[in-house]
């Protein structure tokens, strides 16, 4: 029996894809890939349901061109939460392995070492740019809207498109071996209490060789405490009623996407709790939530509180803060919202 050629594999994948879509046409792209036991990047490369062109250049070089597209909709997600934001790429910084977009509407942190594949994609007439990691999982997608510069998109594709799509090599990431329990909770707590910047939190975790959730469990209830499983909904309803501006962070291996501002339209559809505002949409699979924590960190601007949401295996789903800029204290309305959710008083 001869080994299956790449063309034969693509033909089989396309046939299986077509059968799946005929049976379940409303599946999202990530769900289609999961059902077919392939990566989403492999579906795109095989032109399953889309017309795709691979893009040449480093992720930084490709990313630098996105500002030309005008107002777009950007989407970043993990397995449990989808973050969609309308706006323009402004203040784009892409030198080195870590990049930033610091625009009024689009606020991103890019970790380019995990970006491996990029495509221009057309699906049912909808134009997009899509980036994937080494496992073929989507990192970031950029959708052309009625407010975008369509001519600039076609010029972008003409400039960067490869003549053909190379074979997709899928590489598994090694499992994270970071311990989930702190060896020295007292030292961790002391370090935590000495923080002056929220950005020092991740280096603290590295220094103490503990996962994020492990640190929360070790710190003490005045610094981190478990709250009710439905706290996200309670918090968002409170923020909407009081018009408290929030920050919402959703991350994956290659991206942190941030929304800052008030939220208004909240809607539950099955297990999904949604924010459906004109410039910002969030889709949160609440069936995946195992724990919610209120987290309290000292900074040079005063105490900063956040709500962090985790899966059963300790993966961070989404984070919420009160909207703030460096050098500005936390919103008192947000602090009160967080304290009202807690059963033990917070430090500060």
Q: Could you please describe the fold and organization of this structure?
A:
The N and C termini lie far apart (71 Å). With 348 residues, the chain is α+β, with helices and mostly antiparallel strands. The protein contains ten helices and 18 strands. Helices cover 28% and strands 33% of the residues.
Could you give the topology of this structure?
Elements: H1 6-23, H2 29-36, H3 40-45, E1 51-54, H4 59-64, E2 70-77, E3 81-87, E4 92-93, E5 98-102, E6 107-111, E7 117-123, E8 126-132, E9 138-148, H5 150-160, H6 185-193, H7 201-208, H8 212-219, E10 224-227, H9 231-242, E11 246-252, E12 255-261, E13 266-269, E14 272-276, E15 280-285, E16 291-299, E17 302-310, E18 316-322, H10 332-341
Antiparallel strand pairs: 1-7, 2-3, 2-9, 3-15, 4-5, 5-6, 6-12, 7-8, 8-9, 10-16, 11-12, 11-18, 13-14, 14-15, 16-17, 17-18
H/E order of the elements?
A: HHHEHEEEEEEEEHHHHEHEEEEEEEEH
Low-pLDDT runs: none
Mean pLDDT: 96
Task: Kindly state the percentage of residues in helix.
Answer: 25-40%
Strand content: 25-35%
Distance between the termini: 71 Å
What is the radius of gyration computed over CA atoms, rounded to a whole number of angstroms?
Answer: 21 Å
Number of helices: 10
Tell me the total number of β-strands.
Answer: 18
Q: Structural class of the helix and strand makeup?
A: alpha+beta
